[in-house]
From TrEMBL:
InterPro entries: ProX/PRXD1, YbaK/aa-tRNA-synt-asso_dom_sf, YbaK/aa-tRNA-synth-assoc-dom
Signal peptide: none
Keyword Aminoacyl-tRNA synthetase: yes
One GO MF term attached to the UniProt entry: aminoacyl-tRNA deacylase activity
Statement: the UniProt record of this protein carries the keyword Signal: no
Family: Belongs to the PRORSD1 family.
Protein name stated in the entry: YbaK/prolyl-tRNA synthetase
Domain annotation YbaK/aminoacyl-tRNA synthetase-associated: ranges: 44-167
Alphabetically ordered keywords of this record: Aminoacyl-tRNA synthetase, Ligase
Pfam families: tRNA_edit (PF04073)
Length: 185
């Protein structure tokens, strides 16, 4: 496995260099609703394994975010779960009483969350104004004081208090999470 380059500087504000507007919109919203964050920049993270060094630097466990849909592609879900836990679609489908779930096609991810594959993040819910995406959170996530996520692009990672995501961010977006218990077995 090739190691990605990580800028070891931990920033506590938005970037001053040129970035994509969807990334800057995340920082602007976090500032607007008074959510403090730490941030590091890095090469593209193509997998959860690429995030392990990011985790160490930020002192967090990166949250795995999966964009899923039912077989009819009529129901869409964003699942937040610990990065080291295996995803078992049958286990989740049963808990939420859905037909078998699969990874949703990229065009839906871009349409509803303005995110491309590899950059899936709870932050994308700020773009889901019509509430097309249901949020599912593994209960192990809320046991952690902080969570790690991307600012809608996978060349930066954020450390944010879990409580701020639940109480402030989701209140702002209007998404009400459904909590699930995934064993990863």
């Amino acid at each position: 496995m090739t190691k990605i380059h990580i800028d070891p500087t931990i920033y506590t504000g938005k970037p001053v260099d040129s970035r994509l507007s969807k990334e800057m919109a995340v920082y602007d919203l976090l500032d607007k609703i008074h959510i403090p964050y730490s941030r590091i920049d890095h090469d593209v993270t193509a997998s959860i394994e690429d995030c392990y060094d990011v985790e160490k630097l930020l002192g967090i466990t990166i949250c795995k975010n999966l964009f899923l849909c039912n077989s009819q592609k009529t129901e869409f879900y964003l699942l937040m779960m610990p990065g080291d836990k295996k995803f078992r679609t049958k286990e989740l489908s049963k808990q939420i009483q859905s037909s078998r779930l699969s990874f949703a096609p990229a065009e839906y991810m871009e349409r509803y969350l303005d995110i491309t594959p590899g950059s899936v993040s709870v932050m994308g819910l700020m773009n889901d104004k019509e509430q097309k995406v249901k949020l599912l959170i593994d209960e192990d996530i809320i046991k952690e004081d902080y969570l790690g996520c991307h600012p809608c692009i996978n060349t930066s990672s954020l450390k944010i208090k879990t409580k701020d995501i639940i109480d402030k961010f989701l209140s702002y977006t209007g998404h009400i999470p459904k909590y699930v218990q995934l064993t990863g077995e």
